[in-house]
Amino acid sequence: MKEDCKTKIAQTLCKLNIDGLLRWVNKNSLLVVTYHGVYDKFCRGTLPLFTHLHVDLLREHLKFLKSNYNVISLSEFTSCLKERKPWPERAALITFDDGLRNNYEVAFPVLKEFDLPAVIYLTVNYIGTDKLLWFDELYLLLKKCLEDAVKTELLAEYLGPIPDSCDIGELYPICSKRLKNKSIMERMEIIKRLKQLACIEGNPILSEPFKFLSWEQVLEMKSSGLIEFGVHTATHRMVSELSPDEWEKEIVAPKNKIEKIIGNTIDTFCYPNGVPDVDFFQEHEKFLKSRGYVCAFSAHEGLNSPKYDQYRLGRISVGSDISSEINFFRLNTAGFISFLRTKLKFIT
Fold first, then answer.
1. Which CATH architecture has domain 2-131+212-344?
2. Secondary structure letter of residue 273 according to DSSP
3. Rounded distance between C-alpha atoms, residue 116 and residue 134, angstroms
């Protein structure tokens, strides 16, 4: 009911062209849109994860962006940074986090259809492997446990208190948040224990949306001239949980690896999770600068004004919730939703 109300309000505001007015007001700000996974083999709603969007919605968004923004490439953006010149009016940058295989199989053909550039931030040590990110693996394990009617008290033994009756859409956010706040060793131990309760190998198609790109796919996308790449760490560790002696391995080594494979300079970074002053701090920004990165993208929700901080650039995240509804997307990308969140505390 709450989302229905928000959707109707967004529709009304767009009919009044509020988003158009804000695009004009914010014409000198940079919009950075963030996606993760894009799927087409499942019906809408079958993946209740914020990070996975149906291709029909992506196509609708790209059509809107192409008509209303100057979508620029990563190289155009970094040239503006290096040369200290303004980006074009109504500039927009399209980004994908993690480096999932469906970025190539599903999203790339749509980007080619609209002739729009994008950047993919790679979890470098996972590219070309069968590994899954821990939070995606958690989702699959919880889903299997629910399907197999694993007793709540068994799950609670590893994950903490769990509501007596809940579905995967309710259970997953609770558990992923709890595990995110644990150390990497504790996190991996819990995943290991959950594997004793469930087995995702019994239904391999479930893991399909979570598989990673191959280096061959990376090179093919690079050769198209539309897709560029950046670093999302080596193994998707939040940089705030890294000790200083791990910074080279997680931040610099993946940069060197991509550069060696694709033959291009890699000088942009994207923080996993990415909440400023929680998942990264000023010492990490200084380290990035010292190692040749010219900018870094955070999870701060908002547009980037001409007085931007280039090592904590804001983005507008889009996923399988109200953020993907086209009228809400229009308002969000124009800066309306972030204004309400920060100034009026109206939308949570």
1. Alpha-Beta Barrel (3.20)
2. S
3. 31
Tell me which residue of 3, 88, 2, 21 sits closest to 331, measured CA to CA: 21
Strand residues in 258-342 grouped as ranges (E): 268-270, 295-301, 313-317
Geometric angle at alpha carbon 190, from 158 and 49, rounded to 5°: 95
Q: Which of 304, 309, 273 is nearest to 289 (CA)?
A: 309
Terminal alpha carbon distance of the chain:
15
Per-residue pLDDT at 314: 96
pLDDT tens digit sequence for 74-85: 999 999 999 999
Q: Where are the domains of the chain?
A: 2-131+212-344, 134-207
Whether the full predicted model's pTM is greater than 0.70, yes or no, is yes
SS3 state of residue 317:
strand
User: CA-CA distance, 330 to 332, in Å (whole number)?
Assistant: 6
Half-sphere exposure of residue 40, counting CA atoms within 13 Å on the CB side?
Answer: 14
**Token digits for 13?**
């505001």
* Integer Cα distance of 25 and 101 in angstroms: 37
